Amino acid sequence: MGHRIQLTTRYVTVDGTPWIPVMGEYHFSRDLPERWETELRKMKSGGINVVATYLIWILHEEIEGRVRWDGHRDIRRFIETADRVGLKVMIRIGPWAHGEGRNGGFPDWLQNLPIAHRSNDPGYLDLARRWYSAIEEQVRGLFHSADNPAGPIVGIQVDNELYDNGPHLATLRSIAEATGMKASLWTATGWGGAELPRGRVLPVYAGYSDGFWEESDTGWPAFGVMHFTYNTVRDDLTVGADLRDAPVDVDSKASLGADDPWPFVTCELGGGMAIAYHRRPLVDSDDIAALALTKVGSGSAWQGYYMYHGGHQVIGELSTTQESHETGYPNDMPVRDYDFFAPLGAEGTERPHFHKLRQQHLMLDAFGDAFATSATTIPEAAPGAPRWAVRGDGERAFLFANNHQPAIAALPAVDGVQFTVDFDDSTVTVPSAPFALESGTYFAWPLRQRFGTIEAVTATAQPITEIVTPAGPVVLFAATAGVPVELQIDGVDESDISGGDASSVGSRVVVTPHGVPGLDCRVRIGDTTLVFLDAPTAEAVWRGAVGGRDTVVIWHGSGWFDHEGFRVELPEADAELITIPAIAGTESEVGDPVFARYDVAAGTTRIELEAPAFSEAPLVPVRRAGSSQRFSAPIDDDFAALSPVEIRVRDTDLGGAEHAILELDWTGDVIRAYIDGELIADQFWYGRAFEIDLAPHRAALAEHPLELKAFAWSPSTRVYVDPRVRPAVTEPTLAIRSATLRPIRTRTFA
């Protein structure tokens, strides 16, 4: 990181160089500190370069006057770990944080004080000043500045989702600065028509594909369409709207943010979605990846995900710490579960969208300066025409198209698609012949972009990354489903091209690669090799340091770059790891001028445990509560009346595994897992497996079984579950179909 971070009206610069940050939210206090380094390395391996994290006040000062920074509360250790891994940090210091926390993160003692919270009430400001001073003492010396260019903290967000008190946000910044906090960037959430103090905070925005905060009788929320459509509207007026005292006039403020004199910065693109008792969205991986790429096409200069890494709600000394009806909030959240179906789950599981997003992040890293400096143009689209946009500078561009929406509102295929883009000196029509744009397809294609030593390449494939090798530059692309790969190249002769059929059309050469997309689908132009990958292989591309050398890795599985090289989770069947360049001192298959190949022996064996059977199917008592009178989750007293079932786990099952993920395939309403009476995990059923890492509980499991208590799914329940998985039953249903233990072992290639 350079000495100076600045903002233009369109993008962020570091020492004058355009930079598109990719930020992921990971709450240090909602995970085990011994896991932080590995999980942060996974985040970096996924293309994240800034980690954002809340400081949730109740977790640090549950008892007034006793401020704790020990164990999972150690913010300094977390930031120093992130710095060691190579990540910059955005701290979100509250005082109010939300984050589906109790009282929005306020300790009960603070919530109950007779003061005007989240205002310039002197009594509240005194407490905010004390809280900020405590934070500053912990992070002193870690701020990025001209005097400390190596400092990892590059930004500070004050409060969260405050809509109607810009002067208070300005005061919070002043208080934080007075305590000694410094930041290159000061931010505040701008959604919901927020009143922000001009020039004092950078507005940051959100975009989710679904929302647990909607009502239980809502299908796909109306706000979803805007996030899958190219537009200049930054503001989503619905995020957190259920917490407002008064509704926002949507019609009068619908375009808010479009004309801000700031770059378009996001901090809460939905990396998944939380589950509330009354409403349980089933967000798919392509929903997340398509939304993210649509935001890039709409001009995003900063991709920020919430959550990027899931976690666990903390059980405090005095109470649980999740948002709930008990504290007057509109939603009942799980006591422990905050997995969020994030790219990295609460137990570190790498979800499909971890890989899909990494493909985008590699593109932004390799070609970010071309994106950052380009303006967005959104053509007017006729009904039934494809959604598309162009980010370009008059000479070169990227073309974006999105034909994906969540399954409940899937877009139809579009026939006869062909795009024409005018440049200052010419016109590009791509592809040469119309094609059928399949439902669910989304992409970014280069138009007249530089790759390697080729001056102007237009392609019907999405660039991933470019690496220089002794044999010349190698550029990897992802082919687009249903679209033949076609290149249009300016300024070359047909004789310079190998690996494809070439023909001249005016001043351009049109090339169709030989073969189908995959590792062998290559076109060489001069000294540059272009490789066109099928979708599974494109999503298996990683980039990082192996043995101290910049390396592209192709690995179909879970893994991450550690301090030595690339660490793989050993697969269940023998597999192959591929690199560019070859790993020094390690034998590989010879004969391929581009890829080196290495065998990876199987090392994971799933263990099928006996799935316990419930003797009865109790139903959750139907209650409504909270500020919106939504359906309430069962409480401790309800669970106390249930008889548990047991799963016995032998120490030999856990073995020496680094993690041991128990996956429960079940159907019901709510389930809780206990060991020796301690609640370790829970889930509101919504169609996905219940995951628990048993490795941290190894000692307890040696003496006690894992106990499960659960309520049945009621055929008459009115809670929302996605229609694709909602049980079509006529009787209360509660069953665990399988219990699978997945011990995880790893190997590093260095």
Computed Rg: 26 Å
CATH architecture of the largest domain: Alpha-Beta Barrel
What level of helicity do the residues show? Answer: 10-25%
Could you give a short account of the major beta sheet?
8 strands, parallel, barrel
Please give the count of helices: 13
Mean pLDDT: 95
How many domains make up the coordinates? 4
> How many beta strands in the DSSP annotation?
48
Q: Output the CATH class name of the largest domain.
A: Alpha Beta
Beta-strand residue percentage: 25-35%
Structure described in brief:
With 750 residues, the chain is an alpha+beta fold. The strands form 13 sheets. Strands 4-5-6-7-8-9-10-12 form an 8-stranded parallel β-barrel. It has a 5-stranded antiparallel sheet with strand order 21-22-25-28-27, with no helix packed on it. Strands 23-24-30-29-26 form a 5-stranded mixed sheet. This is Glycoside hydrolase 35 catalytic domain-containing protein.
